[in-house]
Design brief:
By secondary structure, this protein is of the alpha/beta class. The protein has helices spanning 2-22, 39-54, 66-75, 91-115, 155-162, 189-200, 233-238, 246-258, 274-280; strands at residues 26-31, 58-63, 82-83, 86-87, 120-124, 131-135, 147-152, 166-170, 172-175, 184-186, 204-209, 227-228, 263-268, 287-289. The longest helix has 25 residues, at 91-115.
């Protein structure tokens, strides 16, 4: 018993300088992948976010919801179609995206934070004109109501954060320009998180994924690259180390860093309390890009 208590105390002491350093700083977490589907992992993420808020960190939670959207499309008999890896979003699909992301998923997360003792408000990019976007031009191919963020108004987020509230944000934006003015546009949640982090001048952006992080050998989970400089990323792409789905993840990190975010992290959301382990321990758990 004494040894167990000593171990717990050592963990807390190790976390102390990180807690002191991040106090009153902003950290944006993009929440997605398996951590949204598994109830135990979901609870662990929410507990991490609440603990961060309790020690004085300003936390913004940006979430995805691809599997939930896919499930609802199947229920309604709507077939999914992808163009160059991007979901084709016609008006009917956009209605479902908006309903699922801004409605059920967003409010379920907000309710869980409240249930666990946190203070959260659920928003989407349309609220307060927070995220304004133009339709994405996919090399001339029509992919429907998919947007690229042009403007981020962070004023409502700063007001909430200064009041001790955790904003929970779904990635649907307010359309601008021509016939898209006022229309909801579907936005990639990683990009939304990166843009929001930059607009807030965040200390960190944390992207939760279903892999350990950036691996030197994609077949070997023990080949994790724990830390990498932004300037090294292009070389890692040329070497074939950064490939496929990791390319847009690292591109989002670059976007955030170029926007003034201090450090970015790609972590494995399949591991319970991955956020706390990455932020508050010497070893970390994923890949830090700085």
């Amino acid at each position: 018993m004494i040894e167990n208590n000593k171990h717990r105390a050592e963990i807390l002491v190790q976390a102390l300088p990180y807690i002191q350093n991040f106090h009153d700083k902003t950290i944006v977490v993009k929440y997605g992948g398996n951590a949204m589907l598994n109830n135990d992992l979901k609870t662990a993420v929410i507990e991490d976010v609440i603990l961060m808020a309790c020690v004085g960190i300003k936390v913004v939670l940006v979430h995805g919801g691809g599997p939930e959207i896919e499930a609802m499309l199947k229920k309604t008999g709507k077939e999914s179609r992808f163009v160059n890896g991007l979901r084709y979003t016609d008006e009917e699909t956009m209605d479902i995206v908006q309903m699922v992301l801004c409605g059920k998923v967003n409010k379920d997360i907000t309710a869980l934070i409240q249930k666990k003792g946190g203070n959260a408000i659920g928003l989407c990019g349309i609220d307060g004109g927070m995220l304004k976007a133009k339709r994405f031009n996919n090399d001339g191919e029509d992919i429907g109501l998919v947007g690229v963020i042009e403007q981020v108004d962070s004023s409502i987020l700063k007001s909430l954060l200064n009041s001790g509230v955790i904003p929970v944000i779904s990635s649907v934006a307010y359309g601008i320009g021509g016939c898209d003015e006022g229309k909801p546009l579907n936005i990639n949640a990683d990009i939304a998180a990166a843009k929001i982090a930059a607009a807030l001048g965040a200390e960190k952006l944390v992207l939760m994924t279903d892999v350990r992080g950036l691996l030197r050998d994609i077949q070997d989970e023990n080949s994790l690259i724990k830390s990498v400089e932004r300037s090294q990323l292009e070389g890692l792409k040329k070497e074939g180390i950064i490939t496929k789905g990791m390319i847009p993840k690292t591109d989002c990190c670059v976007m955030a860093l170029d926007g003034g975010v201090k450090k970015t992290h790609i972590i494995d959301g399949r591991l319970p309390h991955a956020i706390l382990i990455e932020l508050f321990t010497n070893e970390g758990i994923g890949t830090m890009i700085s």
